[in-house]
């Protein structure tokens, strides 16, 4: 597995996100209140809304367009909504955040 270092954990605000631009498309990298880091394709499975601009709460993000809730750990929409944003492996080592650009979940 090949990891791409994207910066410091402190570069991502708690309950916030930053966007990493890749040739495959934008990836939203989220930081939760408990300092866990998750990465999703930056497009809601509903209408493609920018998840990076959504509200992070717990381990979910709410899409800013139509209020769909997406699980940060998997990219899956919360029922009754259906779909998946696509999840990327993320890790924090020594305060540095890295991503693997191979999605773990196929896009819906």
TrEMBL record:
Pfam families: Rieske. Keywords: 2Fe-2S, Iron, Iron-sulfur, Metal-binding, Nitrate assimilation, Oxidoreductase. The keyword Ribosomal protein does not apply. GO terms for molecular function: 2 iron, 2 sulfur cluster binding; metal ion binding; nitrite reductase [NAD(P)H] activity. GO terms for biological process: nitrate assimilation. The keyword Cell membrane does not apply. Residues 3-99 form the Rieske domain. InterPro entries: Rieske-like_NirD (IPR012748), Rieske_2Fe-2S (IPR017941), Rieske_2Fe-2S_sf (IPR036922). NCBIfam families: nirD_assim_sml. PANTHER family: 3-PHENYLPROPIONATE_CINNAMIC ACID DIOXYGENASE FERREDOXIN SUBUNIT (PTHR21496:SF23), FERREDOXIN-RELATED (PTHR21496). This is Nitrite reductase (NAD(P)H) small subunit.
């Amino acid at each position: 597995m090949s990891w791409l270092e994207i910066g410091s954990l402190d570069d991502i605000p708690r309950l916030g996100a930053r966007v990493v631009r890749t040739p495959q498309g934008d990836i939203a990298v989220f930081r939760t209140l408990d300092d866990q880091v998750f990465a999703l394709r930056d497009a809601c499975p509903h209408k493609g809304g920018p998840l990076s601009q959504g509200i992070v709460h717990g381990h979910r993000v709410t899409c800013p367009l139509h209020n769909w809730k997406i699980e940060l750990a998997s990219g899956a929409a919360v029922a009754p909504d259906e779909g998946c944003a696509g999840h990327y492996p993320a890790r924090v080592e020594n305060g540095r955040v890295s991503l693997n650009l191979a999605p773990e979940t196929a896009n819906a």
